[in-house]
Amino acid sequence: TPQRVRLSTTRAGGHQSAHRGRILTLDVDTEMRPGHVPTLVCDPRVGSSSVSDDLVTLTDVTATILQLAGEEVPAYADARPLPGLELAGEARRDHVFGVLKNGWMLFNATWKLCKYPRGDHLFNLAEDPTEQHNRIGDPSCSAIYDRLDALLTSEIMRFVAESAFSGRHETNSSSADFGRVGWERKYPMPWGGLSN
Hints:
This protein is an alpha+beta fold. The protein contains 2 helices and 8 strands. It has helices at 58-68, 142-163, and strands spanning 6-9, 20-25, 36-42, 50-52, 96-100, 103-107, 111-116, 119-124. Strand 6 and strand 7 form a beta hairpin.
């Protein structure tokens, strides 16, 4: 008899509100704290309850579903299985980032940097979980800001480069592997082979 894994998560509400996934397995405290998005995983293969405060993203739910179905997570996907489920490819995240049309965010489990057109915000969620004290002007936080800003800028540049991937070369190919390492053009291409 196949065993069914149940997975449920709440709405994050955008990058301003919650980016630290709280993984809950079976019967545990489901208290909603600022910076946490509860995710419940009921896996009959896991014999005990556990809580993980590891950083996760919504794409990690996709990677988890693929792994539970016996499929590989594509190499190009920025996703990994949720921690604590003993699935291949589990790894802790050092940070997560979010992008909306009017702002960017990076969160490393302690510090949260938000960049908006009208200014930046820096919060220490360990000391200020409700994000009431913007530390952007605090001289003692300048090194933290510089480090997070460089990391966020690097992530945004990677994100933009990846989003333009399909437009790098003119092609009639619909292959997701086009232009990636190991991809080779079929030549001569047989008639009707344009979709490969």
